[in-house]
Amino acid sequence: MLELEKLLKHNVFIIWNPDYNLKIPIIDDQHRGIVTIINSLYFGIQNEYIDDMLVPIIDMINDYTKIHFQIEEDLLERCRFPDAEKHRALHDELISKLVKIGRRSALEKDPYQFLDFLKTWWINHICVEDLVFQKYLTEVS
């Protein structure tokens, strides 16, 4: 039992806060999914088996993020969000950074730089950038 307690002691890096919800079901589900992947990375680091998980998690977050951004951008275009192009450019910049930092983290076998980037990026993305279009969608509804 002690081994299990140790294994589960430090298993969450980002605790989902209901304030992160934008009240757009598909976007909220995807945001929670991304946070789950980040927490999986953290769990692997804390329990010392990240060597087998780092590259698959980097690939997973890259793929999932591309899908998420495509859906978000499509939604913004359909709703005629006036800053849709600006938001798309932000996504392009974030994907570029994600890929660059993920590659460096994999090459250097250093999951911490990737983890730190993900936490800062996603909390900022959800709590700052996406709130802009959430407020717009609420106003036009």
Give the topology, please.
Elements: H1 2-9, H2 25-46, H3 50-78, H4 84-108, H5 111-140
Helix pairs in contact: 2-3, 2-5, 3-4, 4-5
On the 0 to 100 scale, the average pLDDT is 88
CATH architecture: Up-down Bundle
State the oligomer.
single chain
How would you sum up the major sheet? none
| DSSP, total strands | 0
Overall shape: globular
Order of helices and strands: HHHHH
Counted up, domains total 1
CATH class: Mainly Alpha
Unreliable parts? none
Strand content: under 5%
The helix count comes to 5
Rg over CA atoms: 16 Å
By CATH's scheme, which homologous superfamily applies? Hemerythrin-like
Distance between the termini: 52 Å
Given helix and strand content, the structural type is mainly alpha
CATH topology assignment:
Four Helix Bundle (Hemerythrin (Met), subunit A)
Provide a descriptive summary of the structure in words.
This protein has a single domain (2-140), classed as Hemerythrin-like (Four Helix Bundle (Hemerythrin (Met), subunit A)), CATH 1.20.120. It contains 5 helices and no strands. It has helices spanning 2-9, 25-46, 50-78, 84-108, 111-140. The N and C termini lie far apart (52 Å). With 141 residues, the chain is an all-alpha fold. Helices cover 81% and strands 0% of the residues.
Sum this structure up briefly:
The protein is mainly alpha-helical and 141 residues long. It has one domain (2-140): Up-down Bundle (Four Helix Bundle (Hemerythrin (Met), subunit A)), CATH 1.20.120.50.
Fill in the keyword field for this structure:
141 residues; Four Helix Bundle (Hemerythrin (Met), subunit A); mainly alpha; globular; single chain
